[in-house]
Amino acid sequence: MKQSIRKRLSIIIIFCSVVGVTLSVLVVNITINNTFNKYMQDIQSKRNIRLVEYFQQIYKRDGTWNSNSGEEMMHEALMSNYCLSLLDQKGKVVWQMNPNDIRYKSHMMMMNSNNNEGVYTTSKFALNVDGRIVGYILVGQYSPVLLSKEDVNFKVEINKSIALSGLLTIVIVAAISIILSKQFSEPIKAVSKTSVNLSKGDYESRLKINSNIQEIKNLIVSINSLGEKLNSQDLLRKRLISDISHEIRTPLNILQNNLEAMIDGIVPVTPEKLNSLNEEVIRFGKLLNNLNTLKQVESEEMILNMGLVNIEELIFSVISDFSIAATEKNIELLFEKEENSDFNVIGDYDKLKQVFINLISNAIKFTKFNGIVRVKISSSNNYVSISIQDNGIGIKKEDLPFIFERMYRGDKSRQAIEGSGIGLTIAKKILTLHSGTIDVESKENKGTTFLVHLNKDEEK
Ligand code: ADP
Question: Would you say which domain of life the source belongs to (predicted)?
Fold first, then answer.
């Protein structure tokens, strides 16, 4: 059976309160009845003592029993529902009342008071005058405790008010439970609505409510961050597809146009031409490789193989790899380092190498013939700093904030220079994973400096 959380909570609270109130009403009721009965029994035994004293006084006054002795008590007995008999010292009846006279009245009482068994019982009390027994009185009644109409009314009224207060408590608890359960049910309802929206693909859906219940608060925060993540993943996916298709279209168009021209005989099929088309295909391959690395960093799939990395050795090896490319452009590729410094950091050697390959290759790529690329490393107590400085074409001020973004390649004019706009994105991601930073300073037509900081010898 499906039930809303609010209904279920209210039912539980009301059920508990009904059980609790019923139990306490019962306990209070029983306690009051017992105390009341004890009180009445006290009164009854005082009455018996009074009766005994009364009849002893009568005997003292008259010195004997006759059929009128203490007869006036009969009236009181009749009024108070008990039956009196006077016996002399030999146990012979002097006078006695008929139990039937009180039976009917007692029966009425019993119906009201409910707790009288209705069995006629008598108690015998000896009458002592001057140390000897002069007679007996028998007090008989139809219930262990005699209750007057007022007594019964009193008890009924008390029970009524207990029941009423119980009922009132249940009503109040029910009202409170409806309000309280709303506190739980409303946010949970909203959370469930938002998660249904998210599951249907509405990634913009967010929870705007707040709750002071810790667990619900956590739930709201995590649903919202889930929405945030789904949304950004969705945007990423869409942008990636459009960026990739755009990037692929360019080399593909070049290939297609040239091949068509060759087929149509407009362009001669020469080894040089084929070579240049092959370069396009190679560019294609590089782009796909870069995309694969980008996919890894962006989906946070990248696993870092942490170890002790000597940045000096790493940079040296990258510079060696680029020496031919630099020489081809007659670029001076300089390496400077602070003497007697320690350049060890904890990191992933291959990934960090990728960062400097991207930065140094950019520096060479965007520097004209006869330029200078200067790589400097220095070290302080806490980190190793690496700067890659060139005197190349520089970056426009308006492009600077975006160069670390995916596929951002600056204005159209630079797109003639080979690239995919992915290298800096990858570099930044890898450095972020190493708790490192990367900054850039650049002036158009003057040159660019990238500055990298890596934390030293510290577990990331
Ligand atoms: P790619 O180099 O493949 O185009 P990157 O992400 O490495 O992609 O760089 C993004 C853009 O930043 C480049 O297209 C270029 O416009 C600019 N850029 C990066 N490094 C330099 C540099 N050293 N000098 C001038 N411009 C640069």
Answer: Bacteria
What residues contact residue 43 under an 8 Å CB cut-off, 6+ apart? none
CATH topology of domain 5-169: Beta-Lactamase (3.30.450)
User: Which residues have CB under 8 Å from 231's CB, separation 6+?
Assistant: 203, 204
Indicate whether residue 423 lines ligand 1 (CB < 6 A): yes
The structure tokens listed for 64 are 């004997």
Q: Do 113 and 105 contact (CB within 8 A), yes or no?
A: no
Whether the full predicted model's pTM is greater than 0.70, yes or no, is no
Q: Do the strands 132-141 and 83-88 form a parallel or antiparallel pair, or are they unpaired?
A: antiparallel
Say if ligand 1 is within 6 A of residue 137 CB. Answer: no
> If you take atom 7 of ligand 1, which residue's CA is the nearest one?
423
The gap from C-alpha 266 to its chain's centroid, in whole angstroms, comes to: 71
> How far away, in angstroms, is 309 Cα from ligand 1 center?
26
Kindly state if the Cβ of 166 falls inside 6 Å of ligand 1: no
- The answer to whether the CB of 220 is under 6 A from ligand 1 is no
Q: What CATH number should be reported for the domain whose range is 222-298?
A: 1.10.287.130
Q: Which two tokens stand for residue 393?
A: 């074409």
Residues 6+ apart with CB under 8 A from 138: 83, 84, 85, 87, 96, 122, 123, 124
Q: Is 371 in the pocket of ligand 1 (CB under 6 A)?
A: no
Candidate of 395, 438, 440 to mutate for ligand 1, largest count of ligand atoms within 8 Å of Cβ: 395
Going from the first residue of the chain to its last (460 residues), give the mean pLDDT of each consecutive group of 10, the final group possibly shorter. Answer: 81 90 91 88 92 93 89 86 90 89 60 56 92 92 77 86 91 89 86 93 90 89 92 79 75 86 90 87 82 76 88 94 92 92 92 94 93 95 94 92 79 66 89 94 95 77
- CA 403 to ligand 1 center in whole angstroms: 7
